[in-house]
Amino acid sequence: MTSLINVVGAAVVDSLEAPTRLLAARRTAPPQFAGMWEFPGGKVEAAETAEAALHRELAEELGVQVQLGAELESGNPVGWTLNERAAMRVWFAEVTVGEPQPLEDHDELRWVPLTDDHQVLGLPWIPADLPIVRALLDRVAAPA
Ligand SMILES: Nc1nc2c([nH]c(=O)n2[C@H]2C[C@H](O)[C@@H](COP(=O)(O)OP(=O)(O)OP(=O)(O)O)O2)c(=O)[nH]1
């Protein structure tokens, strides 16, 4: 049996306290995901915590430091199922240092208004992300 690939992603918002915009990122690779939108992030490396991996990925990909907020709970400790081999945990995050730039893995970043579900869901997200995006919109509309 192959082990699960642990992925982490960030729902970067303009404000953890009162989020109104989400930063979506458009992937450049691999071919099956190129042009699709996603949560910036990536795979957790060996001997790295999920949170440390997320800070590392956001520094590499966007050139920013962030404060992490709450996890977007999936009901599963490994996170949201992406496919038969991978699951992703997602945290809210707010930029504390820097301005997000598409430095690696993305060719466009876009702040989308969380008040407009149609605009957010209208982006061609990686299909596995759609349930996550819907849960995010629900969570922002009705904070815990
Ligand atoms: N980062 C990210 N990956 C996602 C999302 N949705 C989704 O299905 N994935 C998949 C795509 C990839 O198969 C996997 C994450 O891999 P990645 O390529 O981002 O990881 P990485 O930066 O560590 O890249 P590498 O070292 O393997 O090159 O999870 C998402 O919203 N964000």
TrEMBL record:
Organism ancestry: Bacteria, Bacillati, Actinomycetota, Actinomycetes, Micrococcales
Q: Which domain of life is it from?
A: Bacteria
Cofactor(s), by name = Mg(2+)
User: What name does UniProt use for this protein?
Assistant: 8-oxo-dGTP diphosphatase
Which InterPro entries does the record match to this protein? Answer: MutT-like, Nudix_hydrolase, NUDIX_hydrolase-like_dom_sf, NUDIX_hydrolase_CS, NUDIX_hydrolase_dom
Q: Which GO terms describe its molecular function?
A: 8-oxo-7,8-dihydrodeoxyguanosine triphosphate pyrophosphatase activity; 8-oxo-7,8-dihydroguanosine triphosphate pyrophosphatase activity; 8-oxo-dGDP phosphatase activity; 8-oxo-GDP phosphatase activity; metal ion binding
Q: Which family does it belong to?
A: Belongs to the Nudix hydrolase family.
Which controlled-vocabulary keywords does the entry list? Answer: DNA damage, DNA repair, DNA replication, Hydrolase, Magnesium, Metal-binding, Mutator protein
**The protein's enzyme class:** hydrolase
- Residues annotated as coiled-coil are none
List, alphabetically, the Pfam families matched: NUDIX
Reactions accelerated catalytically: 8-oxo-dGTP + H2O = 8-oxo-dGMP + diphosphate + H(+)
Give the E.C. number(s): 3.6.1.55
Q: Domain (Nudix hydrolase): give its ranges.
A: 3-135
Q: Which GO terms describe its biological process?
A: DNA repair; DNA replication
